[in-house]
Amino acid sequence: GAVVSQHPSRVICKSGTSVKIECRSLDFQATTMFWYRQFPKKSLMLMATSNEGSKATYEQGVEKDKFLINHASLTLSTLTVTSAHPEDSSFYICSANLASGGVETQYFGPGTRLLVL
Amino acid sequence: GESVGLHLPTLSVQEGDNSIINCAYSNSASDYFIWYKQESGKGPQFIIDIRSNMDKRQGQRVTVLLNKTVKHLSLQIAATQPGDSAVYFCAEAVSGGYNKLIFGAGTRLAVHP
Description:
- The complex is a heterodimer.
- In chain A, 0% of the residues lie in helices and 57% in strands.
- Chain A is mainly beta.
- Chain A has strands at 4-7, 10-13, 19-25, 32-38, 44-51, 57-58, 67-73, 76-81, 90-100, 103-108, 112-116.
- Chain A has no helices and 11 strands.
- Chain B is an all-beta fold.
- Chain B is 0% helix and 52% strand.
- Chain B is built from no helices and 11 strands.
- In chain B, 35% of the residues are buried.
- Chains A and B meet through strand 5, strand 9 and strand 10 of A and strand 5 and strand 10 of B.
């Protein structure tokens, strides 16, 4: 159980285009999902907290108009990188909170590698 | 600002030996700590967690130790295997909110036959 998927796993796009990444909790419902960004050989940097039915909460320094987040259902959150530029190239990872027995555990997706040309 | 950091960027061990990966945290309000394993090109995989009301927790071949006095966290892997080779991250959180995690820098574990 507790499987989180991402789609696509890898995407290459031209500069100026927008890219949508999906994050799904496959066997559980998640009111809260998170989006991270990871540069090569670096740690995960939290970008935003995605809450089902409400606006996402962005971390300091993350442009909300650049990285649009929609949490339309209890099993799906999407991240749209708008007007992508080469510096947006990165590994994007989502996670979802699974609440069980009063404890919340965060499970991660496999990541999406974005390359902007 | 508050941060979670690691003492060693890389750790090389022989297959069969025990591994110890260390982590220091600075947010005294953190009460939930997790270790993740990340293989190349994949998302982090949950290994083990511990809450601040405990100082030790054991799993299968893994043990997490928490020393709140010196704000130190460690992950012990017994009988390290080649499949344990990966980057290991510690993460901290303050419970009661959305379980927002702050990740440490990561330690690469290389297991040699």
